[in-house]
């Protein structure tokens, strides 16, 4: 059965589907001895010979894995990083399968991060049309007034574009009002979005933690540790 080349690469564990598209466009993939740069190419895994960086790519036969990691601050989400900073994959070295993160968490943000060998699911969960609620607990400088909160909820302009409506509520205020703790729920996943939105209402983030993605919650998973998702959680993700 034929399937798109980028989907085959993702399912083989080479990279997420989106990253696989970049690898194809960069000329790093060959099909039957020919470099392929077009994204619409279809292959038959049973007949066609696919190479990535001149190494054969085989359909992944191992069981797909789905992991929840409590990412600490001070780790990058990318697999490799030019400055040599610690990466989240360093924390899951006991996993034999080739896995990659679903989306990203900033270097200085902690919390729930999904990791999987299922490139097709990664593509779907990170595609803009499949936006999933992401819940954060943020420590903010100062205490936003009602006007600032309403501005945040309606959406603010960051990087030249207005964000979609979001939710924010104050959970706790420090006595001297220098800081407050807020719950924030957004539907998008733009680069450093929560931090930029808080800066836009003049209350920058001092500390940020993602506690839920959709119905999946971090719970009491210790920082730096991971667990495998339950069958129910996997089924929920695939329904999104």
Automatic annotation (TrEMBL):
It comes from the Bacteria. Belongs to the pseudouridine synthase RsuA family. Signal peptide: none annotated. Its EC number is 5.4.99.-. This is Pseudouridine synthase. The keyword RNA-binding applies. It comes from Anaerotignum lactatifermentans DSM 14214. Keywords: Isomerase, RNA-binding. One of its GO terms (molecular function) is RNA binding. One of its GO terms (biological process) is enzyme-directed rRNA pseudouridine synthesis. SUPFAM superfamilies: Alpha-L RNA-binding motif, Pseudouridine synthase. The keyword Methyltransferase does not apply. GO terms for cellular component: cytosol. It is an enzyme of class 5 (isomerase). Residues 3-62 form the RNA-binding S4 domain. CDD domains: PseudoU_synth_RsuA_like, S4.
